[in-house]
């Protein structure tokens, strides 16, 4: 083989290798050490966080103690990371875990209130717990709506890569607010009747 062709092949090989290294370590966030650390943290709980939809599904399946621990660990992680987008993403996941925790506690209180044969006035403490948890779900849902909206505007490349979407949607958020408004009104009226 002619020496010029051999040198040309070597040059193309080096360029291809550099392109591959760039793809692996610079353009893909999964190879950023801090991102890998967050993925590992979430995998500890059985959550596949490589993409947003699978992360939310995984978080939804966790138990109450797991949700509490994951939320705390993600907040700690967010405080330590240097990457702004990763800080925001960790807080989104932390808030989602916190919202799920409150939603599960709301469901538990609701089931307890329905299963008791006591009078409505004897279940006021459960209804107050439902009001408190419902208020937390609304507050965190509003925060998540804003955070995911902001994230998609600030980091469009990362949004596309991890398939992040605004969660909850505006329609879902309106339903959550309406549900809490009705629940809150009911508990307030019950509190007045049972004084």
Task: Describe what this molecule looks like in 3D.
The chain is mostly helical and 195 residues long. It folds into 2 domains: 1-31; 37-193, no CATH class. It has helices at 3-27, 33-43, 52-60, 64-80, 84-115, 124-154, 156-162, 170-193. The longest helix is centred in the middle third of the chain and has 32 residues, at 84-115. Residues 27-31 have low confidence and may be disordered.
Question: What are its keywords?
Answer:
195 residues, mainly alpha, 8 helices, 0% strand, elongated
Set out the fold topology.
Blueprint (H helix, E strand, L loop, with lengths): L2 H25 L5 H11 L8 H9 L3 H17 L3 H32 L8 H31 L1 H7 L7 H24 L2
What is the helix tally? 8
The backbone outline, from C-alpha atoms, is: elongated
The radius of gyration computed from the alpha-carbon positions, rounded to a whole number of angstroms, is: 24 Å
Q: Spans of 5+ residues with little confidence (pLDDT < 50)? A: 27-31
Structural class: mainly alpha
Largest sheet: none
SSE pattern: HHHHHHHH
Amino- and carboxy-terminal Cα gap: 98 Å
In terms of DSSP E residues, the strand content is under 5%
Taken together, the total number of domains comes to: 2
Helicity level: over 70%
Summarize the structure.
The protein has helices spanning 3-27, 33-43, 52-60, 64-80, 84-115, 124-154, 156-162, 170-193. By secondary structure, it is mostly helical.
């Amino acid at each position: 083989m002619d020496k010029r062709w051999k040198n040309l092949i070597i040059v193309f090989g080096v360029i291809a290798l550099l392109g591959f290294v760039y793809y692996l370590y610079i353009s893909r966030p999964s190879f950023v050490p801090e991102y890998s650390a967050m993925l590992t943290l979430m995998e500890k709980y059985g959550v596949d966080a490589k993409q947003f939809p699978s992360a939310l599904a995984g978080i939804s399946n966790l138990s109450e103690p797991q949700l509490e621990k994951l939320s705390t660990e993600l907040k700690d992680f967010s405080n330590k990371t240097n990457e702004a987008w990763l800080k925001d993403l960790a807080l989104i996941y932390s808030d989602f875990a916190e919202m799920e925790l409150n939603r599960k506690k709301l469901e538990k209180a609701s089931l307890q209130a329905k299963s008791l044969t006591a009078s409505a006035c004897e279940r006021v403490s459960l209804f107050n717990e439902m009001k408190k948890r419902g208020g937390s779900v609304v507050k965190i849902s509003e925060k998540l709506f804003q955070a995911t909206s902001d994230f998609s505007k600030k980091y469009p490349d990362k949004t596309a890569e991890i398939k992040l979407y605004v969660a909850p949607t505006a329609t879902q958020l309106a339903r959550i607010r309406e549900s809490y408004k009705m629940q809150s009104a009911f508990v307030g009226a019950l509190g007045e009747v049972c004084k």
